[in-house]
Amino acid sequence: MHDDIAEILFTEDEIAQRVGEIGRAITRDYADVADEGIVLVSVLRGAAIFMADLARVIDLPLEMDYMAVSSYGSGTKSSGVIRILKDLSTNIEGRHVIVAEDILDSGLTLEYLLKNLSERHPASLRVATFLRKQTQPQAEIDCTYLGFECPDSFIVGYGLDYAEHYRNLPYVGVLKPEVYR
Ligand code: 5GP
Ligand code: MG
Ligand code: MG
């Protein structure tokens, strides 16, 4: 275990198992629209690893696209100010879209994104979030596909960073508070 990690929450094996389950659920749920295909949208950069793994366990025609939004900088609390830094390259009108997020904290990022994406009139729009933090208050977001609930600590690994570090840890853990204090 990395020296800066206080505790491992989900191991590499547990993550692979759960992502596999989500991929199979999506494959089943979208079987009827398989010929239209789906568009997986990842919110950079944290969700890139989750989406890459998820895409490989979905047995349907799919496209992958990316958005980048700012909400955090290198601090640890959401600013509530969301700005699109990079938009989709795909026209999602009439498409079945699944937004892959790394972690739902205040929910402000997803709330903004879902509103923004729904204005483009996709055929359907759902959320797959790898983690949902037990944060209060949290915007009410319907997470059709959820990896794990996690405690309200600062979490890194499996795509999640602190100041761009730790994204490559294959597990998810709690960062020691002395690292960011
Ligand atoms: P929200 O808008 O839901 O408060 O925050 C969403 C974004 O904040 C997430 O997509 C993620 O980038 C970042 N974030 C929230 N909590 C954590 C955390 O515990 N660890 C890391 N690394 N990022 C977090
Ligand atoms: Mg994110
Ligand atoms: Mg970050």
TrEMBL record:
It is found in: Cytoplasm. Residues 20-162 form the Phosphoribosyltransferase domain. GO terms for molecular function: glycosyltransferase activity. Its main location: cytoplasm. Its EC number is 2.4.2.8. It is an enzyme of class 2 (transferase). Pathway: Purine metabolism; IMP biosynthesis via salvage pathway; IMP from hypoxanthine: step 1/1; Purine metabolism; GMP biosynthesis via salvage pathway; GMP from guanine: step 1/1. It comes from the Bacteria. InterPro entries: HGPRT (IPR050408), Hxn_phspho_trans (IPR005904), PRTase-like (IPR029057), PRTase_dom (IPR000836). It catalyses: GMP + diphosphate = guanine + 5-phospho-alpha-D-ribose 1-diphosphate; IMP + diphosphate = hypoxanthine + 5-phospho-alpha-D-ribose 1-diphosphate. Its cofactor is Mg(2+). Gene3D superfamilies: 3.40.50.2020. Keywords: Cytoplasm, Glycosyltransferase, Magnesium, Metal-binding, Nucleotide-binding, Purine salvage, Transferase. Belongs to the purine/pyrimidine phosphoribosyltransferase family. PANTHER family: HYPOXANTHINE PHOSPHORIBOSYLTRANSFERASE, HYPOXANTHINE-GUANINE PHOSPHORIBOSYLTRANSFERASE. This is Hypoxanthine phosphoribosyltransferase. It comes from Gordonibacter faecis. The lineage of its organism: Bacteria, Bacillati, Actinomycetota, Coriobacteriia, Eggerthellales.
